[in-house]
Structure formats: structure tokens, C-alpha cells
Design brief:
This protein is mainly alpha-helical. The protein has four domains: 2-124, no CATH class; 131-224, GIY-YIG endonuclease, CATH 3.40.1440; 228-305, no CATH class; 364-469, no CATH class. The chain has helices at 49-59, 96-106, 115-124, 151-159, 165-169, 184-195, 199-208, 214-221, 230-239, 244-250, 267-278, 283-287, 295-305, 311-321, 328-333, 343-354, 359-372, 380-388, 403-421, 423-431, 441-453, 459-466; strands spanning 2-7, 23-28, 38-44, 65-72, 87-93, 131-137, 143-148, 174-181. Residues 129-204 form the GIY-YIG domain.
């Protein structure tokens, strides 16, 4: 996708009444050569850099949508000629709902995180829980079975000869039935099992689907398919509790997570889903289906690990999951209660995690030391371990969103907490500077900042800490 932008000078008061180009964007996507079929036009006021930034971020997610042109409109003196403009945005999209959703988003940045953003996400972004097995009737009477996330778009592709070689040579095709599932694996499993049936068996199931959903028919009648899998159970539970406003709130908080992977399910519901998963006989199938597609699936996975009571099994689950952790929220969500059962063994694991070289595994190891070994089990060498636990090649000031940043932030948190729970051991790490420093300067200052924000440190101690900045 390429983008070309030209900007004209802001019009003066007289020129604000004239029709002249303000900004022009041109997008090209080599993967979509066919011209879009639908256009939508909208008028937008108060466009500024933040709105364009939001727009560009969304357009990158939509290979089927482009902006045809953006022109100024005659505003008739309704606005002052200072920064805001009224412009006409012509949106081209393959589907009317996507064009309409994009039009709604452009109406204003202040509503983008509420109902308008919700409408945009429903219409424009690929729904993460929409997975279908579909059945087509071909021109010669044969059946074609496939998988899709958008059945109507896929049907159009088949009808235009671009869907598959078989349907192209056996046209025309029409949709007979479709079964909706919540995970790709479940939909593709249905497709594979359905293809193994004889024509007579297929016709029998399709006849039943005229009176009840095909997915229900397949669960009851398709040999070898059976009830929902653990993965399908988790995805179905998440899909039923999506909150777009909560998703908009969470996305800036976990910048290392692709926004398309975060759908917005609150922690209370994630805990309920994890409990339901843990009670399933096939829970291990979900646990081993790594990497997960969604941020919330990782959260459920982390919470489910915390329900394991057998120490050896828990260590196995931590080691399996930690390499796939890609954000601080999932890392810090991982419970550690079971690790307290065998402190000596846990310390061996903590050393291994802290030397792994994987940023969030290192962060988890430091967090385990902080949560389990800062009270009665504390030893001064633990503070020295944390002080030495930096990512290889860490700069003096780690870049935000880098592995070094999230490791050093956890190190700072450890020493801020240690100032409360083990002050005698922790004070030298924040006091000493320059040649005598026990901590790198960035982490030392962050530890002081966090400690000064704590309500568990006295006013006198905070004044002393500020003098060490």
C-alpha cells in the first residue's frame, strides 16, 4: 500500500467560501486489482493530524477499502478559516457496510471510541469469531465444500470464477448451506469431516439444515465431529462478551499487541471462562494450541495455569506458555501461588527464566521473585540478581515498547517494592550513583519515582528519595 499526501495552505477568510482541494490521498494495493463496486461520500469537519492518523491506521487494516479523493466543500461561512475544514471524503469499498462504517468513523474523532468505533469494527474489520463451513451446489449437480470468514464474499469469488478451479469449471454455483463456528480449527474440522461423507449422507444433513442451524446438525450427526472442542468453547465464550468500548480502552495500554488481536473482554469474564476451561476434560487441547490468535485467549490461558495445583504440572505449563507471552498484561496476569509450594525448586526456575533472553520471560522471573521472595524468604542476593538482570545490549534509556523497557520497568518495580518490604537491603540500590552505582541510572530513577508514588512509604522517606534523583 502506498500513500501520497499533498497539503495546501489554509485558506483565508474569503477563500474559505470557495471550493478548492485541501488534501489528496492516493492508495494503491497490489493485492486488490479489481475496482471496488461501492462508493460512499461524507462531509467531515475539524479534520486534523490525529484524525488522519486514526484513519490511516484503520485503512491499513482494510485491503478492500480505499479513499478515492478528499476535497473541500463550500462552507458558506459556517466555520472560521482556522485549521478545521469541511471536506468531502469519497470512500470506495467492496461492500456497502464497510463503506458506511468508514463514513461513520470519519464523522469525528471524539466518537471514534464509542458507538461509531464499534460500528466501524463490526463492519470493517474481519470479525475474529466468524468462521464458516459452506456448501455450494454446482452447475452439474455436484457439491463443493469450503471454509471462509465471509461467506458472501467467498460466494461472489466463486461465481466470478476466482474462488477455486473446481467451481470455475462447474459453474454456475449457488449457496446451499453454511455452518458458523467461533474458531478456524473447528470450522476446518467440520469441512474435513463433511467431505468424507457419501453424497447420500451429505444430502441427509443438508435437508435437516433447512429446519435447524447446520452447525447444530453437524454436532449431533456428523461422524467423528462431536461436541465443541476446548478452543471452540473459549472462543464462543469470548465472542458472547465482547465490549468494543473496553477494547478501545485497552488497546493503548498494551501497545505491543496488534490491535486486531484485542477484542475487549473484561477480566471478570475471562476468569469465568478460565474456570470453565479448567473443568473440561480436553482443557489440555487449548493449552497446547499455541500460539493463540487473540490477546484474550492468552489471558484465559494465563488464568487457567493459575488454577493448576500440581507443582510439576504447573512448571511444565509455565515453560510451555512463557515463550509466547508478548505483552506486560499477560505476563503480570500469570498467578504464582503454586510456585510457593517448593521455594528451592522455584528459585532454580526463576534463575532459568531470568537468563532466558526472552523479555517477558525475564520479566515474569523478576515478578516471581518480587511476589514470593521479598518477605520471610528474602535474601540479599535476590536483589543483586534483579540488579544484574538486564536484556543483552540494553541502552542507557530503553526505547518504549522494547523488551529492555519492560524488563527494566519490572526491575524498577521490584526495588520500589523492596524499599517497603526490605528497606535495609534496598536503600543502597537507590542511594548510590555514578561509579558506586549498583543499578543503571534509568532503572534507579524509575524505582525512586515509583516509590515516591507509593502510599506505603513515609513522607520523610520520600523526601530522602527525592534528594537522590
Amino acid at each position: 500500500m502506498s500513500c501520497i499526501m499533498t497539503r495546501s495552505k489554509p485558506p483565508d477568510e474569503n477563500a474559505s467560501r470557495t471550493r478548492r482541494p485541501v488534501r489528496v490521498f492516493s492508495f494503491e494495493n497490489s493485492a486488490k486489482r479489481a475496482p471496488p463496486r461501492v462508493m460512499a461520500t461524507t462531509s467531515v469537519s475539524k479534520m486534523d493530524a490525529s484524525v488522519w492518523g486514526m484513519l490511516l491506521a484503520e485503512v491499513r487494516l482494510l485491503p478492500t477499502m480505499s479513499i478515492e479523493r478528499i476535497e473541500s466543500l463550500s462552507c458558506g461561512g459556517c466555520i472560521k478559516p482556522v485549521n478545521p475544514f469541511i471536506v468531502a471524503v469519497v470512500i470506495r469499498a467492496n461492500e456497502l457496510p464497510r463503506a458506511e462504517a468508514a463514513r461513520l468513523v470519519l464523522q469525528g474523532r471524539w466518537r471514534a471510541r464509542s458507538a461509531v468505533r464499534s460500528e466501524f469494527e463490526k463492519g470493517a474489520q474481519m470479525p475474529p469469531f466468524d468462521h464458516y463451513m459452506y456448501v455450494l451446489a454446482c452447475g452439474d449437480g455436484s457439491l463443493y465444500t469450503g471454509y471462509a470468514t465471509d461467506v458472501q464474499a467467498r460466494l461472489a469469488a466463486h461465481q466470478s470464477g476466482r474462488g477455486a478451479k473446481y467451481t470455475k469449471s462447474h459453474a454456475p454455483v449457488s449457496l446451499v448451506a453454511q455452518a458458523r463456528f467461533y474458531s478456524k480449527a473447528r470450522a476446518m474440522s467440520a469441512e474435513a469431516h463433511f467431505k468424507q461423507l457419501s453424497r447420500e449422507q451429505k444430502d441427509k444433513l443438508l435437508e435437516r439444515s433447512k429446519h435447524e442451524p447446520l452447525e447444530d446438525v453437524l454436532r449431533c450427526e456428523l461422524p467423528g465431529f462431536g461436541e465443541d472442542t476446548a478452543v471452540e468453547f473459549v472462543c464462543r465464550s469470548l465472542a458472547n462478551h465482547v465490549d468494543p468500548n473496553y477494547a478501545a480502552f485497552m488497546r493503548p495500554l498494551v501497545p505491543t499487541v496488534d490491535p486486531r488481536r484485542l477484542v475487549g473482554v473484561r477480566t471478570s469474564q475471562l476468569r469465568k471462562t478460565a474456570r470453565g476451561l479448567y473443568r473440561r476434560a480436553d482443557a489440555s487441547d487449548f493449552i497446547r494450541s499455541l500460539p493463540h490468535a487473540l490477546f484474550e485467549e492468552n489471558q484465559v490461558h494465563a488464568l487457567a495455569i493459575g488454577m493448576e495445583r500440581e507443582y510439576e504440572r504447573a512448571i511444565e505449563l509455565y515453560d510451555l506458555f512463557l515463550p509466547y507471552v508478548d505483552n506486560w498484561a499477560t505476563c503480570d496476569q500469570l498467578p504464582v501461588r503454586v510456585l510457593a509450594e517448593q521455594p528451592a525448586r522455584t528459585l532454580e526456575c526463576v534463575r532459568r527464566w531470568m537468563s532466558s533472553g526472552h523479555g517477558f520471560t525475564v520479566r515474569f522471573g523478576i515478578g516471581a521473585l518480587m511476589r514470593l521472595f521479598l518477605d520471610d524468604l528474602f535474601e540479599p542476593r535476590f536483589a543483586a540478581m534483579v540488579a544484574a538482570a538486564r536484556m543483552p545490549g540494553s541502552p542507557e534509556r530503553p526505547e518504549p515498547e522494547s523488551d529492555a523497557y519492560y524488563v527494566d520497568m519490572m526491575r524498577a518495580w521490584y526495588f520500589a517494592e523492596a524499599l517497603v518490604r526490605q528497606p535495609m537491603a534496598a536503600w543502597p540500590y537507590v542511594e548510590r550513583r555514578d561509579e558506586c552505582a549498583l543499578l543503571d541510572e534509568w532503572t534507579r530513577r524509575k524505582a525512586i519515582q515509583k516509590a515516591c508514588e507509593s502510599r506505603r512509604i513515609s513522607v520523610e522517606a520520600k523526601e530522602r528519595l527525592r534528594s537522590f534523583r
